[in-house]
Amino acid sequence: MTRVTPRSSDLDPDLVLRAYAMGVFPMAEHRDDPSVFWVEPRQRAILPLDGFHLSRSLRKTIAGDRFRVTADTAFEAVIALCAESAPDRKDTWINPVIERVFVSLHARGFAHSVECWDGDRLVGGLYGLALGRAFFGESMVSRARDASKVAIAALVARLRVGGFALLDCQFITDHLASLGAVEIPREDYLALLSDALGEGIAGLGAAAGAASCPSPADFGALDRLGAAESGALPPTSVPPVSGKVIAQLLTQTS
Description:
254 residues; cytoplasm; alpha+beta; Leu/Phe-tRNA_Trfase; Leucyl/phenylalanyl-tRNA--protein transferase; 7-stranded mixed β-sheet; 9 helices
């Protein structure tokens, strides 16, 4: 990977948006590191939205509603859980600087989370950033078997319904590869990113004012599908989309 720009002890939300629009993202060396650095991988992991690998066992887990899946209901709890150490992950790259800027971006409509619940207990999820028709997955976490797999499956279904074109996974892992993620060269990734951002947001790097508008793709489209499925009408609280619907969306061809 390539580090660019000096290390910083603070992050401006508009700077972060411009960086993502150029294919660059922040990381910290470890949880307690007070500073961040910028990363632009030479090989980028993406998960093609029409190439998600839905195994028979995962489909059964999703369709059986083993977890209650929500979106944007506990963003701060998800990022805090992602930042925690665990037996299989002693340290993380999410420091308080990154945590703060993403909470700010969530308040502005750019950062989103998917949550998996076992009763009232948060047992997994993920968070990321939406720009144009691109979604940049930042981190996912699991405190129960298959919770992170269900979260990313629900994310893929949500992005497909919402008109997204690119799911950026940053770095490839065996876990992501088993779900359909692939590595592509930086040049190919930047071409896909440019197409996903479009002309309106492609100018984000030069026009900070554009950073005041949320993504033109619709992260909440799946929630309205859930409302239609349940017959709920605004302002009624919309229940989570059922696992059967998510599984069906994942098996539909584009």
